[in-house]
Amino acid sequence: MESVRLNVALLRRKVPNLTSAAKSVGLRPATVSNLCTGKIPVGRAEVRTIIALADLAECSLDELILRGEKVDMIETKIKAIDLLAPLTKGGTNGLVARPGMGQLVVLAELYYRLKRDGYTSIMLSPKGEHPEVEEILDHVDFTVNTIEEAYQKIMELGPNKDLIFTADRGHVANGNIQDLHYKLEKIGMNTVTTFLLDLSGQVVDEDLPYGPLETLWQFDADLAARHKYPAINPLQSTSSVLEGAHLDQHHLTIQQRSQKLLRRYRELRSLVQVRGMDLLPETEIQTYKRGERLEAYLTQPFFVAEPFSGKKGEDVDLPTMLEDIRKILEGSYDSAEVNSLSYIGTIK
């Protein structure tokens, strides 16, 4: 099947305030967001939606729709990310969380892991007072204060260096990030992977908090409250890498089966909290227990958290993770204690 996706970079450049623009022509911002991240394949979108987006961007359909271009993932060896919403190499990846859900810890862990793989990180200092950011600066290679400094540092490091660039939403709202991306696109600089976050937590209530994204990580209040970290929502997080033509079919199948199980488990968990397990049919009890074990397995000890957790950080490569999850889905670990699957790397 031919790979078809939206030209997210073009939309970012041409329609900075996509939320308002989409609403003005009768499009739901959530639909546009899902098209950008691949949660809704372009081939399943209504024709009027694609035409409306092309009109907003003042471009042709051929410019808006990219064909045959592969979207590469960066393997982080973080189970929840690599399974549910893989990091898009060279793309823009947004973190959506309220304070206290662990987004900065995830960011610091990504800096740590990607640095081992040869990436260099640059952080644009957020506007205002954010003392919590100080805790992750030890894991950042370079900190800059303006978008101009960021551009100069990227140019200094050169096009042959894989870079991670991070900015707070304040720089998105004023158009600085769009300007930076446009400058980099003009010179063919495609080695910069961007992370966007919002330290205020206001983005949780918006459909397109950062404009078009290749990857969206939605953090989950319930997981955070139960200390299931990384607290990445398994149903709301998504990535353009997940489009069928971009991802290995085995990976995609396991991802879809996992989401289906976790969706039903979450429904059953709400019932169990109110009524207990006694009223669940036997088949639903099995679904509940497997979902419980999969949720536990997707927790993971982080290297940057070792001084606080007392647990050694763990890497889990993609093939191993997919095989572990296949066995959970098929019942090989139905007799395992849930706690034995929490905060481990691979299943020994």
TrEMBL record:
Cytoplasm as UniProt keyword: no
Gene3D superfamilies found in the cross-reference section: Bovine Mitochondrial F1-atpase, Atp Synthase Beta Chain, Chain D, domain 3, P-loop containing nucleotide triphosphate hydrolases
Keywords per UniProt: ATP synthesis, ATP-binding, CF(1), Ion transport, Membrane, Nucleotide-binding, Translocase, Transport
Subcellular location: Membrane
ATP synthase A/B type C-terminal domain: residues covered: 246-305
Signal peptide location: none
InterPro entries: ATP-synt_VA_C (IPR055190), ATPase_a/bsu_AS (IPR020003), ATPase_alpha/beta_chains (IPR050053), ATPase_F1/V1_b/a_C (IPR024034), P-loop_NTPase (IPR027417)
Domain of life: Bacteria
Primary localisation category: membrane
Membrane in keyword set: yes
Family annotation (PANTHER family): ATP SYNTHASE, ATP SYNTHASE SUBUNIT BETA, MITOCHONDRIAL
Family under the similarity heading: Belongs to the ATPase alpha/beta chains family.
Protein name per its UniProtKB record: ATP synthase A/B type C-terminal domain-containing protein
Protein source organism: Sutcliffiella horikoshii
